Amino acid sequence: MKAKHLLPALLFAALPMVTMAAQSTEETVSGPETHNRELKKGDKAPDQYKRKENAVTDWKAKGLSAPEKESQWVKMGSQYVLVQTTNGVVLDIHPSH
Q1: 8-21, pLDDT tens digit by residue?
Q2: Which residues of 3-24 are buried (b: 16+ CB within 10 A; e: fewer)?
Q3: Is this prediction's pTM over 0.70?
Q4: Kindly report the CA angle at 39 between 38 and 44, in degrees rounded to 5?
Q5: Tens of pLDDT along 61-89?
Q6: Residue among 75, 73, 89, 72 at smallest CA distance from 33
Q7: CA-based Rg of the chain, rounded to a whole angstrom?
């Protein structure tokens, strides 16, 4: 193989590795509750998280901020997620300690 063809081939082969190395700094949550779908702020959580019985009531003791109007903290996997109760939109994601 000629040298002028080798360099583009090597660069093309290394491209997936460079792409995979980029890490997201945005908080996400996934697990069986989300059908292993990754959720981030602005996504819609499953409807079960809009129900009062799933709310984390001791949010202050867990170091979470006060829930906004018409929202509640819920536990998804190992993280706490602030979910809007009217439409299920994820407002915030916070790791549990």
Answers
A1: 554 445 444 333 33
A2: eeeeeeeeeeeeeeeeeeeeee
A3: no
A4: 135
A5: 999 999 999 999 999 988 999 999 999 99
A6: 75
A7: 20
